[in-house]
Write a structure and sequence with these properties.
The complex is a heterodimer of chains A (385) and B (359).
Chain A (H helix, E strand, L loop, with lengths): L14 H9 L4 E11 L17 E12 L4 E5 L6 H8 L7 E6 L2 E2 L5 H10 E4 L13 H13 L4 H14 L5 H5 L8 H13 L5 E5 L7 H18 L2 E6 L2 H7 L2 E6 L2 E7 H6 L4 H9 L43 H5 L5 E4 L2 E3 L19 H10 L5
Parallel strand pairs in A: 3-8, 3-9, 6-7, 7-8
Antiparallel strand pairs in A: 1-2, 1-4, 4-5, 9-10, 10-12, 11-12
Chain B lengths: L12 E12 L6 E12 L3 E5 L6 H8 L7 E11 L5 E3 L5 H7 L4 E4 L3 H4 L6 H12 L5 H14 L16 H12 L6 E5 L7 H18 L2 E6 L2 H7 L2 E6 L2 E7 H6 L4 H7 L70 E2 L18
Parallel strand pairs in B: 3-8, 3-9, 6-7, 7-8
Antiparallel strand pairs in B: 1-2, 1-4, 4-5, 9-10, 10-11
Helix pairs in contact in B: 4-5, 5-6, 6-7
The chains are: A alpha/beta (385), B alpha/beta (359).
Chain lengths: 385, 359
């Protein structure tokens, strides 16, 4: 990460120590995270957890991820790729089908209200829609007071006032008096999202799960929210999961990025190299499709949307093998029959594509078509990362 | 993509919006959501209309096509449409009957939410055919159905999808059906109101490439409304940037991107993190868009502008040539002609234009 990205004065740790922090144990980790939703009514299950007779949506299959203190992990994917499901599973809002979630190395078993409270004290969530996530009939004071009292005990009087003011200051809503008695409808979208962040911070969480925190906001104020989250990451050392469909904002904000397609991880690595030198055909398609005013040649030289027609597959009956194979121009029989693991493609990077394996019959990625993008990345790689 | 957006553009105006003003609300204190907006769409051109939510870009499109729902009232202005025979008519002065035949035939709209624009209880084929038959009286139903099938295959959907209900189609396909429907009568002007905002980037690009290809083939003009300026730079020939109910800058797409002249355009472009090139710290624009109900005198952007001057708080700037135009006070370059900006920095005698806006 280039040094100029660290906010002046705010960063508690220079880039090197931040990188070092990533080598330590993750604060929140998931292994083989899988979620299947039953469709068409309740599934008929025999008492012993027998055979499902109903159809299920394979929303998420075997996802591994690590959230480190003071670092941002982005999950990028199209709608329906399962990225919000990750956040909801990690927040304990929906039960996992299989796989495990570990907080500080111990397996999380959220059963019952008290255990849930204990868990959410450390793992808080911010939702996409600040218009829907704040109760419109209560002023900000009420919303924040509830969160403070639930997580910090029965504060009253001056102590409570001080806690509320401090929360609003943390999200740069100053002076606090101007906002504390306002109702949500009196605030702009950006201010509301800041209140939602303040509510999450009331618990002094170690992990913040941000599910598309900026996609409902006006474009000119989105960066303000991202910079605020960046500041919280650096000052408070919070681990942030940033869920987005916008790969450019992942590059801007996140230290590491994982790319999700149809419920499976396609590629993982540090954000800069994933966006500048994508290894997986799907990531390449994603990067080539993003609007890029600097590239006026039109996506002809690269994997363009034209070369890769079609749509994400049905998750009720997902394709066998690699889930991207029906759209992948390089797919072989191997891709159509067997699910690829995540193969290491570079230090700290992996891609779930058979092309990076040593299996016979593996696909050959035509790197020439990636032309100028790879060239860009090669020159950009000189920067410290 | 703009490599594909061919150079068929001529300076022949097909839709001219002049001094259009719109109020929301009745009584003594209506909100002025559009104030004297003028805009010209040339034949064969893709005109991008960019701005944040609430800046009036959709209102402009709806007012110009008289689709504005109460309490929206058009208080002044005219919208001149040049017909295929060269005759010009003011859309705002048409009778209901004339308006009915103009709509869809001359001006068609693709709305933002494809799901809510299609009727969920009818098959898409019927919805296409109904529209065609309403305008082509006397056309046999079979022929209209053939036309509908042809339209679907034109936007890349197999014709057997005519028998599908909207819920059986994916979001991208629904949006394609909407586009097919809009093109059913070969309109001269296609207005696209955030057509791809609800879609993913891959689908967005597929659909836009298709629209641009159809534009080249069928020769219609497009008004493309979106909040995503970086997308517009690729798609549009010309871009108009709106802020708080006014157009603040208008120029060729590449010029807006490389040489923004209005502080708001500059800030808006800096609000999109780049996917390529050097990573840099971005700040967006401080503050938030103004409340149109309580608009202060002067420039509506003054409160957020980094280059604000005293005159900005008192006088409202008008759209005019930039400081670099041959008629302006600065150094004259031919590329600046035709560019318009509403900013006091570009007025005569206001001193040098800040570096960021003088590239």
């Amino acid at each position: 990460m280039p040094a100029e990205l660290a906010p002046a004065g705010a960063s508690g740790a220079p880039p090197e120590t931040r990188a070092a922090a990533q080598d330590g144990p993750p604060v929140l980790a998931a292994r083989g995270l899988t979620k299947h939703f039953a469709v068409g009514g309740l599934s008929k299950q025999s008492a012993g957890g027998g055979v499902r007779t109903r159809k299920v949506v394979h929303a998420l299959d075997g996802v591994d991820l690590d959230l480190h203190r003071g670092s941002v992990l982005a999950v990028v994917g199209e709608s329906g790729s399962g990225k919000s499901t990750i956040a909801r599973l990690l927040a304990g809002l929906v039960p996992v089908t299989s796989g495990s979630i570990m907080l500080d190395g111990t397996e999380v078993r959220v059963r019952g209200r008290r255990a849930f409270r204990r868990y959410v004290r450390r793992v808080q969530m911010i939702f996409q829609d600040p218009f829907g996530s704040l109760n419109p009939v209560h002023p900000i004071r009420y919303t924040l007071t509830r969160s403070v009292r639930i997580h910090r005990g029965r504060l009253t009087g001056a102590a409570l006032e001080a806690a509320l003011a401090e929360l609003l200051e943390r999200v740069h809503l100053t002076p606090a008096e101007r906002y504390i008695d306002a109702y949500p409808h009196e605030l702009s979208g950006g201010q509301r999202q800041r209140v939602a962040i303040a509510r999450a911070l009331a618990a002094d969480p170690e992990v913040l799960l941000a599910d598309e925190p900026i996609s409902m906001l006006d474009v000119s104020i989105r960066l303000g929210i991202l910079n605020l989250l960046k500041d919280l990451r650096d000052r408070l050392g919070i681990a942030i999961l940033y869920i987005t469909h916008d790969i450019a904002s992942a590059r801007y904000f996140a230290d590491r990025t994982i790319v999700l397609y149809a419920g499976r991880v396609m590629e993982a690595g540090d954000s800069e190299s994933v966006t500048q030198d994508p290894k997986h055909p799907y990531t390449r398609l994603l990067v080539a499709s993003a609007p890029d005013p600097d590239d006026l040649s039109g996506g002809d030289g690269d994997l363009s949307a034209r070369q890769v027609p079609g749509e994400p597959p049905s998750l009720i009956d997902p394709p066998s093998g690699c889930r991207f194979n029906p759209r992948c121009p390089f797919a072989t029989d191997l891709c159509r029959t067997e699910v690829p693991d995540l193969f290491d493609v570079a230090p700290g990077r992996s891609a779930a594509c058979w092309a990076y394996s040593d299996r016979p019959g593996k696909p050959v990625l035509d790197l020439a078509t990636a032309g100028h993008r790879t060239g860009d990345a090669a020159t950009g790689k000189g920067a410290p990362s | 993509m703009s490599a594909m957006s061919a150079k068929t553009t001529t300076a022949e105006p097909v839709l001219e919006i002049r001094d259009l003003s719109v109020d929301y609300g009745y009584g003594d204190d209506p909100t002025h959501v559009l104030r004297n907006v003028s805009l010209t769409l040339n034949r064969g051109e893709v005109l991008g209309l960019a701005g944040e939510s609430g800046c009036g870009k959709s209102t402009l499109a709806y007012a110009a096509t008289r689709l504005l729902a109460p309490p929206g009232i058009i208080t002044s202005g005219e919208v001149l449409l040049t017909g295929r025979d060269g005759r010009r008519a003011d859309l705002l002065g048409l009778t209901d009957g004339q308006l009915r035949s103009t709509r869809w035939q001359d001006v068609a709209i693709v709305f933002q939410g494809a799901m809510s624009s299609l009727n969920p209880v009818y098959r898409v084929g019927r919805q296409l055919v109904d529209g065609i038959l309403a305008h082509r009286k006397g056309m046999p139903r079979v022929q209209a159905e053939e036309r509908a099938a042809e339209l679907l295959s034109m936007v890349g959907i197999p014709a057997d999808r005519l028998r599908s209900y909207p819920h059986q189609l994916s979001g991208g396909m629904r949006q394609r059906v909407m586009i097919a429907m809009a093109l059913a009568l070969e309109p001269q002007v296609l207005i696209m109101d955030e057509p791809t905002t609800a879609l993913d980037v891959v689908m967005q690009r597929q659909i836009l490439e298709q629209v641009m290809e159809l534009r080249d083939r069928l020769g219609f003009s497009v008004i493309f409304i979106t909040h995503d300026v970086s997308l517009l730079v690729e798609v549009a020939d010309r871009i108009a940037i709106m802020y708080a109910g006014e157009i603040v800058e208008q120029a060729a797409a590449g010029d807006v991107y490389r040489r923004p002249r209005h502080p708001y355009s500059h800030g808006l472009l800096g609000s999109f993190p780049p996917l390529h090139g050097p990573r840099r710290e971005l700040s967006g624009i401080p503050g938030s868009p103004p409340d149109l109900r309580r608009l202060a005198p002067g420039c509506p952007f003054a409160a957020r502008c980094p280059h604000v001057m005293d005159v900005c708080r008192t006088d409202r700037p008008v759209l005019g040539p930039t400081a670099f135009a041959s008629t302006g006070p600065g150094v004259a370059t031919a590329a600046e002609d035709g560019r318009l900006v509403a900013c006091h920095l570009h007025a005569q005698g206001s001193g040098p234009v800040p570096k960021a806006l003088a590239r």
